[in-house]
Amino acid sequence: MKGLYCRVGVKDAEHKFVIQETTLPEVLGSHQVRVQVKACGLSALDLKLLKDVGMQRDLIPVGREVAGVVLQGFQKPEKLSSVCVAGALHDGLCAYTALHTHAHMAAGHTLLVLDGASSFGLMCIQLACYHGVKVLTTSHSQQKHTFLEQLRPSVGVQDPLVARVIPVYNDSSDLLPVVLEETGGLGVDIVIDSGVRLQEDKEPEETKLLPHKHDIISVLGVGGHWVTSHQDLQLDPPDCKLLYLKSASLSFLNPEVWTASSAQQGRYLHLNLRTLSLCMKPQLPWRPCSVTRRKRLLFNCDQNTLLGRWDETCPSMHCRDHKETS
Fold first, then answer.
1. What is the pLDDT of residues 148-175, one digit of tens each?
2. Which residue among 102, 203, 212, 312 is least packed, with the fewest CB closer than 10 Å?
C-alpha cells in the first residue's frame, strides 16, 4: 500500500513530500481502526508543534483525516458523505474541544465566533446552534458577510443560524460597541478567536482584520470563557486584571492535543464520532482534488503550516490507525 509522507528537511533544507510503500499489521491494536479510504482531508501540518512536543520524525504522514468504509472500528453517520466527513474531522474536533471541553457551552449562552466563514468557524456555529446557543460572528469581506447571513439549517425551522453578523473588513473597532449593543451591555459568555492582534501598531498587514486582545476581553461577560488559537499570546497586567474583575477564563486550543498522548486515544475516537453525529449537513468550503494533485498542492504551501483545507478522493487506498494515516 502506498502512503503520502512529509520528509522533514535538516536545518535550512526544504521539506519534501514523497509517496512510498508501507505495510499494514495483520492484528490491530486497541486504539486502531481499519478503513478503506474514500476521501482524505489535507489540513495544516504544524511541524513546529511536533518538534516542540518531541514527536517529529524523519517521515510524517500527511492526510490523517480520512473517511470511507470502516472494516474494524466505529462507523461514520449515514447522513454525511465520505468527503464531508474527511473535510469536517479536523475542524469538527477543534470546534467540539473549544466549545465543550474548554468553554463548557450550554443552552442560553451567547457565543462570539471570530471569522465565522472559515471552516473552523462554521463548525463552531453549527455545534452551537444545535445546543441552543445564540451566535454572533464577524465577517472579513462582503462576500463572506452575505454567506453568513444566508446560513440556514438543512432541516427543521429555517431561521438564520447567526443572530448578528458584524462586518470588520472596513474597521475592526466596530466589534465592541456592536457586541455590547446586541447583548444589552452584558457581553458574551464565550469567545472563539481565529487569531488576535497583540499590539495596536507594528502588526503585519494580514492581521489588520483581527481584533485586539483588549477588545476580546472587553466583550466577555462575567464568568465568560475566551478560547484562543494564538500560541504566542501574552497578556499585560491591565488585561489580566480585567479578566480577574470579570472572573473570566482563558484557554488555549491545541488541535493536536488528543493525539499527543496515548492515554487520550479512546476519547479521541469518541469525540470524532460524537462531533460528526451532531453536525448538520456541512455548508463548508471544501475543495475536492484528486490523488495526483496532492503533492503539487503541498509543495506550494508554507513550510511550517503546510495546508489549508482540501479533500482528496482516493478510492483504491487503505489505511489503518487514526493516529497515523497513510
1. 988 877 666 667 889 999 998 887 678 8
2. 203
